[in-house]
Specification:
The complex is a heterodimer. By secondary structure, chain A is α+β, with helices and mostly antiparallel strands. Helix content of chain A is 19%, strand content 30%. Chain A is built from 2 helices and 6 strands; from the N terminus they run E-H-E-E-E-H-E-E. Chain A is globular. Chain B is of the alpha+beta class. Chain B is built from 14 helices and 11 strands. Chain B has helices spanning 26-33, 53-61, 94-103, 108-132, 138-143, 146-155, 162-173, 180-203, 209-219, 226-257, 259-267, 272-282, 316-319, 354-371, and strands at 11-12, 36-40, 47-50, 65-66, 136-137, 293-295, 299-301, 304-306, 311-314, 376-377, 399-401. Chain B has a 6-stranded mixed beta sheet. A 3-stranded antiparallel beta sheet of chain B has the order 5-11-10. Chain B has a two-stranded antiparallel ribbon with strand order 7-8. In chain B, helix 6 (146-155) runs antiparallel to helix 10, helix 7 crosses helix 8 (180-203) and helix 12 crosses helix 14. Chain B starts with 10 loop residues before the first strand and ends with a strand. The chains are: A alpha+beta, B alpha+beta. The interface between A and B is medium-sized, with 22 and 26 residues.
Chain lengths: 74, 402
């Protein structure tokens, strides 16, 4: 398996702005007012990296699951 | 669940003229009895108004509600002119394309880097106010200057041009304070001014946000058009200061009319970050709910079936006083364990400058309580002059003594 992305949200940092869930509802939802990824591993999708780039507190981290390299935020 | 809005009589909205920072009691009645109600604004089509926290969050945050769908509709609004709301008339992914370009400059991390410089500016203003002597107008000497100086540095706009663009910026938040002709003229001037600064950056690159936006445009023209670039930078300059310029005197007004709360911050400034969020929750900055979201499919809100194509307004101020989420919601309490207020909105259009505003307001309050521990109103509360005909509530002057 290659090319997938790992998505994680730092719930301590998350302020529940709703940006990611409103922008990429197929990838994020708010649980108890904090963002939660719907899937830990996803196919590369600009909506996911955009959500990480737009998060006001950079609580979303998108990485390469094999190398651990950060894909977003840029 | 009811679908019969045909039989529901639309209420006139806003419910009354804004009274200082008091929220009309109709909101709490509606939250209790009729969480989704029909309203008719001075302009545009009839709309639904949501007043409960969960419903407002749904309307603002759920992708089944659209701002782009407002384009071409006779949008419910408090002012005669329609449209020109830029990013606020877009949905993801178009909205994200622009948001991404500016979002990086406004993250909590980047904003922290501006804190020392913001403190320096605030200290300078406090020195000047001391020299001027008591009493002084806090709006003129402090609140009108601090956020403008900061957004100028962030964007790369010369502070010396402040008199010009501050006049023109009012066009973006005016409802009736300016004539439609003035609004068009001021917007034209503001756009022309920014276009000039953008042209300069094509001659000489800069490392400010304007420079970054110009690079994003010139390196990949699909990301942002020239017109979007001008409108976006004008929007940032205007929104980036009109809001905080107005909210800072509101904060100080609330603290000086609740002297126990002012004393609390003076005695323990470590409470200031939570106080800033509590004041954001407590103060209804907007005069009315605005920027209706249009349902793109039938969807239930507050026990009512909203039909596809219908506009729904969400009242942030009402959501922030919802007792289902906030204990003793009408009290100003700097010790709340969690404060998920909607003062900066919610969802894709959550205020891009929220972290910047938080930082500026924290620095401002810290500076005021430490430099002016005896701060108080210099005139009777009833004599304070409030702005009229704007999207936001605020003071024209705030005379203070110390």
């Amino acid at each position: 398996m290659s090319g997938q992305w790992r998505v994680s949200v730092d719930r301590d940092r998350c302020i529940g702005s709703g940006l990611c869930a409103g922008t990429a509802p197929e990838h994020f939802q708010l649980v108890d007012k904090k963002s939660t990824p719907l899937h830990e591993l996803v196919e590369p999708d600009e909506a996911v990296s955009d959500a990480a780039d737009c998060c006001p507190v950079e609580a979303i981290l998108v990485t390469d699951p094999i190398t651990g390299t950060t894909i977003a935020p840029a | 669940m009811s679908t019969g809005h045909e039989v529901m009589q639309a209420r006139t909205y806003p419910f009354g003229d804004p009274d200082r920072l008091n929220l009309d009691p109709m909101y709490s009645k509606l939250r209790r009895e009729e969480p989704l109600t029909r309203v008719r604004l001075p302009f545009g089509e009839e709309a639904w108004l949501a007043t409960r926290y969960d419903d407002v969050r749904l309307v603002l945050g759920d992708a089944r509600f659209s701002r782009a769908a407002s384009v071409g509709r006779d949008e419910p609004r408090t002012h005669p002119r329609q449209g020109e709301s830029g990013m606020l008339s877009m949905d993801p992914p178009e909205h994200t394309r622009l948001r991404k370009i500016i979002a990086k400059a406004f993250t909590a991390r980047r904003v922290e880097q501006l804190r020392p410089r913001t403190q320096e500016i605030a200290d300078g203003l406090a020195d000047a106010m001391q020299q001027h002597g008591s009493p002084a107008d806090l709006v003129e000497h402090f609140a009108d200057v601090l956020p403008v100086a900061v957004i100028c540095e962030l964007l790369g706009v010369p502070f010396a041009d402040r008199d010009k663009f501050q006049t023109w910026s009012e066009a973006i938040i005016s409802t009736t304070s300016l004539t439609p002709q003035q609004i068009m003229e001021y917007l034209g001037n503001l756009h022309g001014y920014l276009a000039g600064l953008i042209a300069q950056r094509r001659v000489q690159d800069t490392d400010d946000l304007l420079g970054a936006m110009v690079r994003a445009r010139d390196e990949d023209g699909d990301r942002i058009s020239e017109q979007e670039l001008v409108e976006l930078s004008a929007g940032l300059l205007a929104a980036g200061h009109e809001t905080t310029v107005t909210q800072l005197p509101n904060f100080v007004y609330v603290l000086l009319t609740n002297p126990d709360r002012f004393a609390e911050l003076r005695d323990d400034p470590s409470l200031i970050p939570t106080a800033v969020d509590e004041l954001m929750r407590y103060i209804p900055l907007g005069t009315a709910a605005a920027f209706a979201r249009y349902a793109t499919e039938d969807i239930e809100v507050g026990g009512v079936l909203v039909r596809a194509g219908e506009p729904v307004l969400g009242s942030l101020a009402s959501a922030n006083r919802d007792g289902r989420v906030f204990e003793h919601p009408d009290e100003l309490d700097f010790h709340r364990e969690s404060n998920p207020h909607l003062g900066f909105g919610h969802g894709p259009h959550h205020c891009v400058g929220a972290q910047l505003a938080r930082m500026e307001l924290q620095v401002a309050l810290h500076t005021l309580v430490t430099r002016f521990p005896g701060l108080r109103l210099a005139v009777a509360e009833q004599e304070l002059p409030w702005k009229k005909g704007m999207l936001v509530r605020g003071l024209r002057e705030l005379p203070v003594s110390w």
